[in-house]
Amino acid sequence: MRNISSNRFDNGRDGTVRISDVARHAGVSPSTVSYVLSGKRSISETTRRRVLDSIDALGYRPHAGARSLASRRSNVLALVVPLREDVHVPVAMRFAVSVVTAARAHDHDVLLLTQGEGPAGLHRVAGSAMVDGIVVMDVETDDARVPVLRSLDLPSVLIGVPADTEGLTCVDLDFAAAGAACVHHLADLGHRDIAFVGQPASVYERRTGFAERTLTGFEAAALECGVRATSHPCDPAGARDLASALVRDRPGLSGLIVHNEASLAPLLDAFADHGRVPPEISVVALGSLPQGAPDLTRVELPAEELGARAVSLLMDRIDDPGRTEVTLLEPRIVPGRSTAPPTG
Amino acid sequence: MRNISSNRFDNGRDGTVRISDVARHAGVSPSTVSYVLSGKRSISETTRRRVLDSIDALGYRPHAGARSLASRRSNVLALVVPLREDVHVPVAMRFAVSVVTAARAHDHDVLLLTQGEGPAGLHRVAGSAMVDGIVVMDVETDDARVPVLRSLDLPSVLIGVPADTEGLTCVDLDFAAAGAACVHHLADLGHRDIAFVGQPASVYERRTGFAERTLTGFEAAALECGVRATSHPCDPAGARDLASALVRDRPGLSGLIVHNEASLAPLLDAFADHGRVPPEISVVALGSLPQGAPDLTRVELPAEELGARAVSLLMDRIDDPGRTEVTLLEPRIVPGRSTAPPTG
DNA sequence: ATGTGTCGTCGAAGCGCTTCGATGATCTCG
DNA sequence: CGAGATCATCGAAGCGCTTCGACGACACAT
Fold first, then answer.
1. Which residues of chain A have pLDDT under 70?
2. Could you say which residues from 209 to 248 on chain A have a Cβ atom under 8 Å away from some Cβ of chain B?
3. Rounded to whole angstroms, how far apart are CA atoms B267 and B238?
4. A126, A137, A133: which is closest to A161 by C-alpha?
5. B107 and chain A in contact, CB less than 8 A
6. Between the CA of A252 and the C1' of C22, what is the distance in angstroms?
7. Which residues of A touch B65 (CB under 8 A)?
8. What is the dotted CATH code of the domain comprising A175-301?
């Protein structure tokens, strides 16, 4: 029978087990335990086993601060989440969660920064060596954070693409191609008069990268295909009015591209009230659709893949800060029941 | 003219400035700099100034790992965010953001944990001394994380209240009172037949604290007021059907309590399609309403206040782990245009 | 046997900070 | 006017880990 609250390997101080306790328990030196954990030197299989057994016999967990002090690695990433009226929260959350999940798969944790803190937040986490790298979401064409990131000498990855990508690592959906793909899909079906329903006006005003590029891709493709095409910012509260205006002013309108998660449902409802229901009017949705949504033709936003890629690129840059690259994922248009050749 | 990239106070190694560099620059010892920063010993005003000037002349930021190693404080809180199909993401985000903001106000950062990691995540951040405390959201009546938190010897605060609060610090809206307040409001107006539209069924199945308590409060108050009252789980996809069923089966129904952010709009739309528009049918909303929503009578969810309270309670417990307490915020019913005495 | 590697392990230094005790200097009061 | 208190500061130890160089043991080719 032994005392449950302590045994001969306890250090006696407080509840925490240190590497030296593990070392003693396993009959090796602390450095050997460290090497078992890091794999940075070869360790005999028998020693390895013994150390590992001691570790979980004692419930040892390395002190994060000590580790980061000695190794100059914190195993934490910073994630800057957007926080504006005009960003669609569920989409932002999908990104955030995928980043956290991917980070954990690479043995890292995630520190949450809000955009509210601005550059100061970036300086703080970088300067105090709290994190090994930074993931930034909701990037604007001329993003104020970009120069800060460049100056930081801490690796970072943007989910989104600013105008000048010199020295940056970015990953995003190829929104220009996505916008174009929507147009081509409709044009190929024979549509000659289409409207693009976009993000809230403020999103374009601050020149959010993805919104701007989508619109550019849309306009270029429309020109190329020779279709009549207009674009309209939209927010949920204005969706109904926009639908009425389009129905009233554009009798020939037969195709709709909707790049606005929050407005999609009210917009389609409003069109339905005017008797225009897909596929009589063709609708292509671009973005992150809720599960349980109707079967629309769409270009999905691969948030999970983007998050995972961002983290994986960040890991690469942590190991080798030299390389930088811009990765654009190719959009994939998924046919649904909401598009068809124009009637009449 | 001087060399921009280095001056006589540089340490010459890499870009980082250490406390000893500041000390040299200010002509004091490192410990003095530390005391200036922590305020744990009195320092003359002149020295203080000089040190502070040196700090921002050199751009010094304490190394977080070193600090946490020496002081046994990481200045980081963990936040466990819920991640389920059935939680309303914007609400969760409001909580998360308010926790981050409040934490920053207390000079702490926030580490993001997803519920997916379960107890392992809690053990990890606690065992490695990564965080000084934990905030947990989306608490269930019989939450599996509660015993883990109790065993952790790391302060924690729950936003939500489990069945057994022994040894816990919790903060939440008094949802039972909120549910009751909605009933009383309607009953006082003269309604005698009301329905409670709740969270998705799965939320009750896993016995989420706030949902369960609201329902309990609703039922008790209905009994007490002697009104006919029924309750119905609901999700956005089922809102339309629920509305039809209620209109069909409950001709006398004159009041509705909606405790479901995501279903509120579709539900009201569906009622409107049956010709029942507030205030002809009285509607009380309970929860976090989007800005720009119609002027409904409601009980607001004070997410920001709850987040801030949670953090502030957590700080108290970090300084004094002894005390524990359960704080319930009193619900406030805000009259809007959606309720009126029953017609006919 | 002797030299030459390789493998597995150890000891010690040091990461950058906080904190404790000590030490002058200055003030207070009988 | 000197004992004692108070104030401002310093030096050194130590937080728990990683990592570097060293070293003994053993293998293999001379």
1. 1-14, 344
2. 236-237
3. 9
4. A137
5. no
6. 90
7. 64-69, 74, 129
8. 3.40.50.2300
- Strands A333-334 and A297-300, bridge-based pairing: antiparallel
Domain boundaries for CATH 3.40.50.2300 within chain A: 76-173+303-329, 175-301
Q: Which residues of chain B does A123 touch, with a Cβ-Cβ cutoff of 8 Å?
A: 61
User: Cα(B51)–Cα(B34) distance, rounded to whole angstroms?
Assistant: 10
Q: Using CB atoms within 10 A of its CB, is residue B13 exposed (0-12), middle (13-18) or buried (19+)?
A: exposed
Phi, psi of B182 (to 5 degrees): -65, -45
Class of domain B19-62: mainly alpha
Q: Could you tell me the CA-to-CA distances from A40 to A70, A106, A318 in Å, in that order?
A: 15, 17, 17
Report the distance from CA of residue B43 to the C1' of nucleotide C27 in Å, as an integer. Answer: 17
Q: Read off the pLDDT of residues A142-195 as tens digits, 9 standing for 90 and up.
A: 999 999 999 998 999 999 999 999 999 999 999 999 999 999 999 999 999 999
| Annotation: CATH topology of A76-173+303-329 | Rossmann fold (3.40.50)
Task: State in Å, rounded, how far the first CA of chain A is from the last one.
Answer: 90
| pTM passes above 0.90 | yes
A250, amino acid identity: R
Tokens of A173: 């959906």
- Paired tokens of B238: 């089922």
